[in-house]
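Kindly review this protein for my students:
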Amino acid sequence: MCGSFCTMGNAMEQLAELRKKYFVLPIMSRNVYETDTRFGKAADFIKKAQELTGQKVLHSIVEAEPIGPKHLVDAMVVCPCTGNTLSKMALGITDTPVTMAVKSTLRVGLPVIICLASNDAIAASGQNAARLMNTKNVYFVPLRQDDPIKKPFSLVADFTLLGETVELALAGEQLQPIYR
C-alpha cells in the first residue's frame, strides 16, 4: 500500500475481498505506515490491514527483501500505487518497502499487479506507466480518468476489477482493455 490516501478506503475494501480467496501479506510504504492525513490515521490503516489479513504489516526494506527469494507470495499487488512509486518501479529505484517488495517479486518471475491512483498519470508519470506496461510480469488494473475536468491528468484504477486482474495475472494475462 502506497500513499494515495484518498483511495485507502477502496484499497481496504479490496484487501478484504482478496483475503476471502488468498493469503495476503500486507506491506506499507513508510508514508502510509507513519502519516496521519484528513483521510485517516496511520494507526487505523495498520490496524485494519492487520485485522483483515491476520498478518503483521511489513514496513521496512529489510522485511520486504526476502519476499521473492523465499516465495512468500504467488503475486504482488500494489494497491493503491502512487505515481511516485510507479515511477520508482519503472526506473529500478528500490528505496521503500513497496519498491523492494516489487523488485523482490519480479526477480523470481512472479507477477506484480498495479492498482494505480495518481493525479499526474497522464502527465509526468505517464511515461513510466507505459514503460511498466511493457515489462514482463507486470499487470495493471484497468484505468480511467476519475475527474477529467478538475484533475485532467489523473488516472485511477477501477478497484472493483482488482480480483479479476489478479486471477488473470496469475495465468499470465492482462485484463483488457487497460483504459476504460
Q: What stands out?
A: The chain has one domain: 5-170. The chain has eight helices and five strands.
